[in-house]
Write a structure and sequence with these properties.
The protein has 124 residues and is mostly helical. Helices cover 77% and strands 0% of the residues. The longest helix is centred in the middle third of the chain and has 24 residues. The radius of gyration is 15 Å and the shape is globular.
Length: 124
């Protein structure tokens, strides 16, 4: 049940972020990135990444354990971004998307508890 709810949350959040970044990147600058970054076409790249997460999460509703690698991927990239981008920005007093960092932090703390590690790495 927790795995299904995780995919539903991914579908909602990743769907919204991907559509906003792909089709309304200037709106994404303010709504998603809280104006922490200057506008760039790289917002569309981020949208494409999040669309992939969205699409794979839809499949995850039907194949939850088989698609759990998308959750491992999210855990890795969100942890990396927090450690190598958000934390240095915080320590140096630089601007960064605070709401995104907060969401990532919650997600990174939550994911290890719902990822079916035995199935992901085929432990017996």
């Amino acid at each position: 049940m927790a795995l299904t709810l995780t995919y539903i949350a991914n579908i909602i959040v990743a769907g919204w972020i991907s559509i906003t970044c792909l089709f309304y990147p200037r709106a994404a600058q303010y709504s998603i990135f809280t104006d922490a970054f200057h506008y760039s076409e790289s917002f569309r790249l981020i949208g494409a990444l999040w669309f992939g997460i969205f699409a794979l999460s839809v499949v995850g509703l039907f194949l939850p354990k088989e698609m759990s690698l998308i959750l491992v991927f999210q855990f890795i990239y969100k942890s990396t971004w927090l450690l190598l981008a958000a934390l240095p920005a915080i320590l140096n007093g630089n601007i960064y998307p605070k709401s995104m960092a907060g969401f990532f932090l919650v997600w990174v703390m939550f994911l290890p508890w719902v990822i079916p590690w035995k199935e992901v790495f085929n432990f017996t």
